[in-house]
Each structure stands twice: as C-alpha cells, then as structure tokens.
Amino acid sequence: MIHLNRISTEPPKRWEKKETKEKLSELHKELFELQNKFFADGRHALLIVLQGMDTSGKDGTIRHALACMNPMGIETKSFRMPTKEEGDHDFLWRIYPHLPAKGMISVFNRSHYEDVLVPTVAKSIPEAGLRHRLELINALERHWVSSGIGVLKFYLHIDQGEQKERLAERKQDPQKRWKYDAADDVAAKHWDHYRKAYEQVLSGCNDVPWNIIPANKRWCRNYSVAKVVRDHLDSLELKYPRKRASAKRKRAQ
User: Fold this and answer.
1) pLDDT of 90-112, one tens digit each?
2) Which one of 58, 70, 157, 174 has the lowest number of neighbouring Cβ atoms within 10 Å?
3) What residues have CB less than 8 Å from 198, skipping those under 6 apart?
4) Which CATH architecture has domain 7-240?
C-alpha cells in the first residue's frame, strides 16, 4: 500500500534550481527531436496521464515540460465532470475517442481515474463497484500497452500547505484568478479523503506503474516529468523510415 504522507513532495537533495532548469532546456531539445522521430517511425503511440490534487500543476506541466513538442503530433484532453451524454454511457466511453493513434501523443489532464476518485470521496458507488472499476482499468491499460500504446502515468505530489498557498495565489493574481472556483475550497477541505482515494488508486492500479513526482517546486516537477517522457521515447529505439510509405501501404497498416 502506498502512503503518500511518507513520500516527499520536495526536490531530491543536491538538486539546484538553476542547474535543473538548464537541464530542462537540454531535455526540450531532445524531446523535440525524439517526437519528430516518433512520428516518422509510426510504430508506437503514447498516452501521458496527469493526475494530482487541485493546484498540483497539471496545466503548468503541459505548458513547461511538454510545450517543446510539435503541436501537430500531440493532443491534450481535459476530463472533468461528465456531461449528460457521457454520464449516460459506461464511464470509459468518453476516453476511447482520445486515445492516440500510432505516431501520436495524447496528454490527459485528469483522466479515467476521475471516475474512481470522485465516487470514492463522494461515496456514490458501492465498494464492489469501485473495485470493479480498478480491475477494469488495470486490464485496459495492459491491453493498451500490448496494442502499442505506451502509457506514462504521473501523480503530481504536493502537500496540503503548498495547496493552500497556491489557492491563495489564484485568488490574488489577476492572471490566475480565472482558474479559481469556489469548489476548489470545498475540495481542499476534503484533503484527507482525496489523499486516501489517491492512495487506493496508486496502489490498486499499478500494473502499468505510476510515477510519483515531487511537485512542491515547479522546476523540479517540470524536469522530472520531461525526463521520464524522454527516457521512454529513447527506449523505443526509434528509426526514421528509409522512404515514405505509399498511401496504399498506409491504408493496409
């Protein structure tokens, strides 16, 4: 069982802000080149899942860790409260249209895990139903991986004090005030409940492993996520094709 209160939200010792930011700049160059080769290679797809407490920095991670990538090869999708149409279907129905095709990268800002976390806190689904959802997600993520979709899951780990500071910042900063919603304060009051719900998800849906990212410091968070993505792409032994595939061959593939 994962216990989040035993895992640090701060950067590893010896990490320096300036040096880490310089390393991130180098990673950006590598990621740009790797994504280009990833698209050209065409054998793989990649799904990046970002989860975390409110204000943990999901938007900021996309902007600062992944913005170096060509927007033609990446789709970002945010999953919030299901719409009426989505609620009338199975909880995974809304996910499938946004899974990446080969050569493409999809980033989920929140994801299918919201349909386990929120019902857990609200106690709107029986315990057996929640276990079923966890088992189904495990099976599906294994299926996605075996189908050629790499799945990188990130939990952006902040502590309660940092969340309070960021919520206060949202209220005061004109450039961030638009993000503030009164529901943020309500959710913050349920910190312990959400932490326990996340611990169940991180422990129970780990067939495709989670990356728990210390996210109290934005520079640490951005570098850590970018490095995991770089390492994954680098491990695929990507190759440029010798020549462009014909339209007929593409259809057959």
Assistant:
1) 999 999 999 999 999 999 999 99
2) 174
3) 4, 51, 53, 117, 155
4) 3-Layer(aba) Sandwich (3.40)
Quick one: which H or E segment has residue 234?
Answer: helix 218-235
> Largest Cα–Cα distance of the chain, in whole Å?
57
Entry pTM: 0.92
| Number of CB atoms found within 10 A of residue 154's CB | 24
Strand 149-157's sheet: what is its strand order? 74-78, 105-109, 45-52, 149-157, 210-214
Six-digit token string for 214: 């210390």
Domain boundaries in the chain?
Answer: 7-240
Tokens of 77: 């999708």
Phi, psi for 176 (deg, rounded to 5): -115, -10
